[in-house]
Each structure stands twice: as C-alpha cells, then as structure tokens.
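>> Question from a student workshop board

For tomorrow's exercise we were told to take the sequence and the ligand below, predict the bound structure, and bring the output to class. My setup keeps failing. Could a helper post the expected result so I can at least see what it should look like? The ligand is guanosine-5'-diphosphate.
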Amino acid sequence: LAERLEDAWKKLRGQDKISQSNIQEALKEVRRALLSADVNLQVVKDFVADVETKAQGAEVLSGVRPDQQFIKIVYDELVQVMGETNIPLAQVDTAPTIVLMAGLQGTGKTTATAKLALHLQKQNRTCLLVATDVYRPAAIDQLVTLGQQINVPVFELGADADPVEIARQGVARAKETGVDTVIIDTAGRLQIDQDMMGELARIKQTVQPHETLLVVDSMTGQEAANLTRTFHDQIGITGAILTKLDGDTRGGAALSVRRVSGQPIKFVGVGEKVEALQPFYPDRMASRILGMGDVLTLVEKAQEEIDLADAEKMQEKMLTAKFDFSDFLKQMRLLKNMGSLGGLMKMIPGMGKLSADQLQQGETKLKQSEALINSMTAEERRNPDLLASSPSRRRRIARGAGYTERDVTNLVSEFTKMRNLMQQMSRGQMPGMAGMGGM
Ligand code: GDP
Ligand code: MG
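>> Workshop helper replied:
Here is what the output should look like for this input. Compare the format with yours to find the bug.
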C-alpha cells in the first residue's frame, strides 16, 4: 500500500501544478490504496470523488510541490470524514444512560460490553450489565464471568427467559439501584437474519436506549458497509465499536461504517483482554488506513513544506509592507514550532539553531503577544503604526490584556524590529544571530 502511494507520489513529483490529468493518475493510486485497506468499493468511489473536488479547488502554495499538497489533502479529508475528533459515549442527566449493543455473532459484543463497563468505571461511572443472549448456552456465563473480573454486577434471568423481558427488567433494576449506565448485551447471528433484527428492534423499542452501538469486527472488510447499512436502516445506530484492530487489518471498515451510517466510531477494541479498549481517534485511523509509517511520513513532510511556504509568503508580505500584527502572531507561532524553526533556519545561510533558553523565552513572549494582539481592534492589527503614535490606544490594549503599557510598547518595537530584519534578509543582507534575539 505504502509503495503504491509512493508511486503516486513519484508520478506527481516534478510537475508544477495539480492538473486534471495528474490528479486522475494519483487518484487511481489512492483508490487502489484504500481498496487494499479493505474500504468498501462504493465508499472508495464516493470518497475519491470528494477528494478530487477538493484537490481541484485547492490553491497550491508556492514552495510546495503539487504532489505534497495533494497527499495532505487526501489525509485531511480522510481525518475529516471519520469525524475529526473523538466523540465520547452519551451520558444523560437522569440516570441511567442506556446502551444497547448490536452486531453479528463473534464480532466481540460481549467482550466489548465488559470493556466498556471497565472504561466507564475508570471515569467513576457505575454500570450494570444485562445478559440477553439466551441462545448460546455459554453466553450468559461468559458475561457473568467478565462481570466478576471487573467487579460489575450482571443482570440475567437464565436461558429460558424472553430477551425483551430480560432487557426491560434489567433497565428497571438499574433504575432501582441507581447505577449510572446500563449496558445491554444481545445475541448475534452469523449472518443478518430477520429473527435477530426483529428481536433487537423490540428490545430497542422497549428500553429506548440513548446509545445503540454497532459492534463491527474490523476483519469484516468489504462487507462492513452492507452490514452497517442494514443495521442502521432497520435498527438505527448512534455509533460503533470497531473490534480486533490488534490484528493486521488496516481498519478500512472504519471509513465504511462512518460513510454509510454517518455515525461516529466511538471506541476500538485492540485485544481480548477487558482493558483492551481505546477511544477512537480519526487521525490515527487515517494514518493506519494510509499504511502507517511510510505515508504518514509523507504527510508530515508535506505539512512541513506547507509551513515553510507559509513563512515564505509572509516574507513577501513584509517586503511589500503589508505585514501586520496578525501576520506577526502567525510568524511567532510558526517559530515556536521546532520543526518549522529548523526548516526556516535552513533557509537562512549562516544561521544556527536557537538555544533551549531562547525557545522558552519565546514561548512566554508568544503568550503575552497573543493576549496583547487579541486586545487590538482589527484596524490596529492591520495598521501597527496607529499604536506608535497613540498612548491612549496602548493603554487600552494593555488594560484589556492584563499587561502594562510598557509591554505594548515593547511589542510594537519588536514587531518593527522583526519587520526590518525580515526585510533586510529578503534583500540578502544577513544580520546574524544578534539580530535574532528579539524573536
Ligand atoms: P460476540 O459473539 O459478539 O459476543 O463476541 P465475543 O465478545 O464473544 O468475542 C468473540 C471472540 O473475539 C472472543 O474470542 C473474544 O476474545 C474475541 N475478541 C473480542 N474483541 C477482540 C479484540 O478487540 N481483539 C481480539 N484479538 N479479539 C477480540
Ligand atoms: Mg456474545
């Protein structure tokens, strides 16, 4: 997979613009990469179409190769589609929060039920587990054993009771005992059948859960999309747990589940033990789907180049005297980033690295500058000279940010120094380290 993207990368290299044709070529490679990560074919097609649109609309930053920019767009889009941030489990004001587990047999529902309870326990949430899988002789025992292991009570009525009734009484018990969250484990089948769906629907109707989590085995591959569609259409899910990610699957199912249902993956299972549950992080999954190490390095490299191009753009701005306080702030943030700093320094011949002390000072200064600049009006930010000539403006800003007028004066003088310095550098005059102290 990584090699394929590397190929796409090479094909794009050395061309100055993202054009219709070289995107087509690269998209084909991305498509192949996603398919080998087990993303559903239709999902791949839709995703690729989206990225294509984005890539064509995107401006290529100067100093960045189109291929780098493109790789970054693919990665960003992948992260965005999968939800950007982790979305935690619901918690309602009036306990108990009711969670219903759904999924095919063997996907890891029962295990995930216990894992989830342990996870919630660590957040000081109390749980009750409810065993409704009356079809497999060992299923109830399995949950009871897991419950003992993590010290969480399990509600069960034996193997002769009606699953819907067990669920109903389980929730009632949770209310009586005042637990925070009740998690209902259900029976699965090896394949989707209407008995299972009917029973799930009835349990859902009866207990009105706040979360219905679809447990999906990440090794399901292509089928994950159809499975998700069926469960979402017939039962309605609010999220998913992707299990068995400790195996060597790439996790393409994550993208399929998200695209098909629009619902977030909330957790991932990474082992058989009860501790082996982690919150789902879209950026990590994106890296995994794109083949981990190698492509991720390309993405990081691209990000670095983009930061660098940003710095170059800024220099142009300074030359034309359009450089203002907002740019100044951006520039300081950029400098704070060690990676970018190293990169920026490389651009300037004869310039060494800043010491740790200087970086620490920069950090403190950045915070202060941010506060001061935030207290400026938009006009003042655009036109720094307004401040040089107006003590009342400087006083107002200082008060607003909780600093002294002197701090504002220093900021203005540093801003001016930086602008002059950058202008000198752009003209090819090298001021050396002494001049960098203020930055
Ligand atoms: P259920 O039929 O959906 O309730 O599935 P179970 O919870 O009984 O799990 C089926 C099998 O998958 C068991 O052997 C579990 O130990 C195993 N399992 C569940 N989750 C994971 C996981 O995240 N990683 C690994 N490696 N195995 C898992
Ligand atoms: Mg089970």
